[in-house]
Amino acid sequence: MWSEVLVKLDCFNKSLQGKSATIDVTSNLLSGLAKSIQYLSDEGVQKYTDKAKNVCDSMSIKSIFSIRRLRKVKRMAGETTQDEAHLICAEKSFKLECFKVYDKLISEIVTKSDIYHTISSDFNFLSGKTLNESSVSYLEKCAADLGSKYNRDIDTLEFINEVVTFKFQVKELVENINTASHLDILKVISKYGLRNAYPNIEIALRIFMTMPTMSVARPKSVSEVRNNTRTEVASYRKSKKLKVVNRNRGLVMDSAGPS
Q: Which domain of life is it from (predicted)?
């Protein structure tokens, strides 16, 4: 069961390593990942328990859930319903725990997808299709909103004017404007030397294209971990003063202690 989940997660992680894995692509991939795990949850866990039982039987291992004696729960005065949690068998409890993991995993993925979708929607008006089909007033509003969010990097007033002018020029420079991505638009600006004419559009596109979709840290070797641990322990010992009690004299002396 978990191998299928891990395979789907592995495929998703490999997809993020591509050059075209921008924020909007990542949001769509996360949405698809959530649906695929939801499909596994809808299938249930019965087929996995049956498979596990077959494996146990082939290895002459008992393939039964442990049976515990049901405990008696005393009802308090004023209770109208009986607590039936203690009546759940081990097999049903296992299935409930599996569904909890599925629900938690799906919830985390959907939350992450919504965050990426919100960010990508701010830059969506700079794609070829939106530039071609949207009205000037809509593009002005989107440019003003994006400029206010990234006012340290983008001049909002200039950005609005650039977007309005660029809307009519980009259609003549791109052959298939409706399928042009943010990267394609950025390549057009670089190819035709339009950086000085549309500096804020280029900055906005570069911000969008360089947003990280995943964080990767270089794994530490065993020797690095060991050396770091020794250094931390040595620093801790030196920074602390140990009080040595002389029981014979009843004196307390401050000592730096061994390092």
A: Eukaryota
Report the alpha-carbon distance of residue 145 to residue 189 in Å, rounded. Answer: 22
Beta-ladder partners of 165: none
| 209 within 8 A of 182, measured Cβ to Cβ | yes
SS (H, E, C) 121-154: HHHHHHCHHHHHHCCHHHHHHHHHHHHHHCCCCC
Report the SS3 class of residue 118.
helix
What are the per-10-residue average pLDDT scores of the chain (259 residues)?
82 80 85 90 76 75 65 60 54 78 89 90 93 94 94 94 94 89 92 93 92 56 48 53 45 46
Tell me how far apart the alpha carbons of residues 199 and 204 are, in angstroms, rounded to a whole number: 9
Q: Find out whether 46 and 114 touch, Cβ atoms under 8 Å.
A: no
Question: How many whole angstroms separate alpha carbon 142 and alpha carbon 136?
Answer: 10
CA 109 to CA 107: how far, in whole Å? Answer: 6
Pick the closest to residue 189 from 168, 166, 164 (CA basis): 166
The CA-atom distances, in angstroms, between 144 and each of 13, 157, 164 are 34, 8, 12
pTM of the model: 0.62
> Who's near 90: CB < 8 A, 6+ residues apart?
65, 66, 67, 68
